Design the sequence.
């Protein structure tokens, strides 16, 4: 063979080799760029990272994010998950890419308790959810509806203030947690069912149990074949709570159906929901859906669950922090005193003028976002964000608790209760700010923000205006226990107790 031919063959082979090498290199490089998951802790077979979550997952996830970053991968059994722990990442996922993450995963808790997730909060993204959300936002939760329900809050609070006045006279220690939870339950009863409490049901406890169950990391959701054994006993509990809740809802609906032809001056939530019974929801060209009794029960249940515990928990945390910080308590009391005087109770019109109250509430929600991991979301399609590839049906967990306590955003005193940090920074929770997201953000943001905020603000203002509060004698402000329990929400682990003394000058309350 001539030298020239050898050279040509050699060059050809070399070229081919280089070509494949180049392609391989390019390909694998593309592959790593597109298919790289966010960093995360090492996983075990079968359970992935489920074993590391512990009893307070929001705290565990916060410390893990310090190691793996604000966008972190977790493997929850067979379910891939992304955990978001900074406001910048939250903006990227809940604003820029909101539409991709606007769905909810199907979890056993809501499947069993919320009639196959037919309500609003756990419903998958789509035309049904959109219609339900639109209806509820417009007919139940709009600003004018919230304003119209003012007399209910006023009346229930007056009753409570009178009760507390009696306790104050004898210097009694009041179970503040109990009093606040019962108050909110009474308000919800009036608003949603148009009546006072049923003595035969303990709806509040059922809802609290339900929330703990829905928030739990349930093996059945992550390792379905292990779920059959119900090792945590959650399936059994869900079924039990679900049955009890259904009985309550049946009684409520039946009562309203029987009273339907009586003229009512003010329609409650159930009346309004029943008005869409048998209506067809326009599912935009797809199969139409007729609203039935199950849909109505599911929607009503979601509203009850979302309303009954959230406001009460926020108020309990706020009052706890006020008791720990006499300076803040005094400043708030002075503000209300200046606006309202000491001859009457606070009314809802006064709230607009109480700036320091707004700051106290913003600070409470920053440190104690009622749903510390919001409500889980699920990606509807595969996508790439900040160079990371995120598969379809990935669970999105937003650590609102960690975001509110991020020292890079809230400075070194991030863990401290210091309402003055909001002097220059008014929060409106409308989805433009991500430094503190107690109501979530984007399409799935809480639709009850106005109702929640007005309730929380009015109750705190009234408590602080009508009474001076002291901790029981064996507890000092610095050693009040501030531990939390974890469920879908984070209530206080220990109930709050305090001693009121009445401070207004009037003989009668208006
Ligand atoms: C202080 C009070 C409240 C807080 C802190 C709060 C917080 C939240 C949070 C964090 C979410 C999840 C948002 C997300 O996934 O991005 C949510 C959803 C929801 N909230 Fe609230 N909430 C409060 C009061 C209320 C009230 C009074 C109602 C109604 C009566 C309500 C109804 C709902 C509903 C129906 C959803 C589900 C929305 C959906 O999935 O489309 N909330 N809330
Ligand atoms: C305080 O109230 C809570 C909630 O209603 C209740 O579970 C608890 O037993 C009460 N604590 C005391 C000491 O009565
Ligand atoms: C309800 O009230 C309206 C007017 O107030 C009256 O015309 C109507 O007949 C009443 N309906 C019933 C069922 O009582």
Sequence:
């Amino acid at each position: 063979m001539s030298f020239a031919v050898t050279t040509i063959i050699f060059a050809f082979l070399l070229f081919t080799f280089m070509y494949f090498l180049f392609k391989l290199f390019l390909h694998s490089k593309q592959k790593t760029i597109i298919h790289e998951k966010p960093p995360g802790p090492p996983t075990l077979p079968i359970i992935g990272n489920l074993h590391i979550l512990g009893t307070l997952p929001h705290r565990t996830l916060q410390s893990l994010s310090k190691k793996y970053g604000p966008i972190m991968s977790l493997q929850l059994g067979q379910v891939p998950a992304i955990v978001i722990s900074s406001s910048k990442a939250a903006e990227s996922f809940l604003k820029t890419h909101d539409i991709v993450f606007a769905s909810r995963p199907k979890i056993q808790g809501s499947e069993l308790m919320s009639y196959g997730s037919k309500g609003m909060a756990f419903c998958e993204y789509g035309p049904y959810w959109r219609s339900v959300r639109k209806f509820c936002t417009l007919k139940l939760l709009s600003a004018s509806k919230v304003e119209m329900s003012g007399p209910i809050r006023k009346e229930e609070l007056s009753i409570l203030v009178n009760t507390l006045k009696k306790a104050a006279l004898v210097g009694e220690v009041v179970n503040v947690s109990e009093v606040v939870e019962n108050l909110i339950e009474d308000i919800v009863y009036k608003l949603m069912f148009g009546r006072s409490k049923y003595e035969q049901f303990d709806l509040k406890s059922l809802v609290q149990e339900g929330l703990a169950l829905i928030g739990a990391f349930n093996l059945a959701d992550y390792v379905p074949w292990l779920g059959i054994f119900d090792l945590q006993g959650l399936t059994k509990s869900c079924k039990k709570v679900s049955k009890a809740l259904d009985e309550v809802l049946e009684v409520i609906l039946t009562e309203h159906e029987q009273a339907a032809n009586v003229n009512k001056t003010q329609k409650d939530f159930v009346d309004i929901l029943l008005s869409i019974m048998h209506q067809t929801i326009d599912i935009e060209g797809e199969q139409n859906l007729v609203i039935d009794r199950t849909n109505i029960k599911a929607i009503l249940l979601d509203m009850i669950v979302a309303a009954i515990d959230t406001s009460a928990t926020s108020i309990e945390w706020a009052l706890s922090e006020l008791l720990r910080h006499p300076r803040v308590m005094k400043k708030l009391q002075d503000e209300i005193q200046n606006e309202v005087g000491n001859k009457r109770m606070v009314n809802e019109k006064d709230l607009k003028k109480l700036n320091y109250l707004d700051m106290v509430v913003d600070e409470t929600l920053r440190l104690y976002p009622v749903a510390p991991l919001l409500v889980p979301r699920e990606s509807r399609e595969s996508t790439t964000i900040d160079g990371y590839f995120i598969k379809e049906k990935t669970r999105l967990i937003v650590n609102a608790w960690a975001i509110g306590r991020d020292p890079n955003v809230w400075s070194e005193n991030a863990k401290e209760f210091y309402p003055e940090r909001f002097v220059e920074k008014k929060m409106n929770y409308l989805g433009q700010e991500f430094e503190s997201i107690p109501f979530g953000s984007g399409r799935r943001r809480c639709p009850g923000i106005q109702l929640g905020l007005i309730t929380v603000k009015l109750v705190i203002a009234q408590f602080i205006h009508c009474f001076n509060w002291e901790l029981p004698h064996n507890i000092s402000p610095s050693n009040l226990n501030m531990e939390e329990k974890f469920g879908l929400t984070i209530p206080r682990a220990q109930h709050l107790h305090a001693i009121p003394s009445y401070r207004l000058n009037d003989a009668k309350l208006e």
